[in-house]
Automatic annotation (TrEMBL):
Subcellular location, record wording: Membrane
Protein's UniProt name: histidine kinase
Domain annotation Histidine kinase: ranges: 20-244
Domain of life: Bacteria
Organism: Oryzomonas rubra
Amino acid sequence: LQKQFNQAQKMEAVGRLAGGVAHDINNKLSIIMGYADLLKLQPNPLSDNQTHYLEEMQKAANHSCEIVRQLLAFSRSDVISPRTVNINAIIADTCKGLGRLIGEDIRFEFRPAEDIWPALLDPTQIDQIIMNLAVNARDAMPDGGLFSIETGNASLDEAACQGIASARAGDYVRLSVGDTGCGMDGETLGHIFEPFFTTKEVGKGTGLGLATIFGIVSRNKGFITVHSEVGFGTTFNIFFPRMAREGTGSEPPGDERRAAPG
Ligand code: ADP
């Protein structure tokens, strides 16, 4: 419980920080990038060394932009417009741009469930979840592999929820995203949802991808389970409450439901 409390506090602090400073940093970064572009356009050609320095500066500025983008995405929690959605349709749309992201060595499969139940979500949230998981899957499979997305309807009883923190019996729409990559050990798994936790080298990871997903899923009263085996791969199962239709007697799970790390 203590761990979850710390997690919530950290997320709130990061969210506040992000909202406060990200825009200002973005403005300054635009100035840096603008002047760098201008330098490159100078009539006197730069020496090889100067060009190299300039390109390193541009790389660093681009990476900083990416961090700011993720920070803003992380703090964007309250400006969403949820509506009743068919997640299959949203995923199909998101997947159009996936090939370029994961590259040619990674095979991609999408297995949508027939008659998927509706969920109450902002479509951009699904997009963000898929994109963040796809980047991680790509990084976990430098030599290629399989990246797969599957959806399903899941009626969970108390027994099925045993051992999954914060999961409650109910009807859920399941989104499973898997890879055949490097996998994670238990120590890593224990930290993956913490903001700024990353095992990637400096300049590659921000540690905000899974924390952002955690935030989205908790705010939608869903939960996450992760299965990972070193050397074999990882699967994230994300459960969103089924959107209850009037008169079906199927109620979405209660307020206290929260995403569960691990
Ligand atoms: P980042 O990708 O910037 O490091 P994330 O929050 O998305 O931040 O991920 C945190 C860490 O979780 C990663 O650095 C990596 O160690 C681990 N991780 C996440 N997804 C996977 C995956 N599919 N396979 C192996 N490790 C993963």
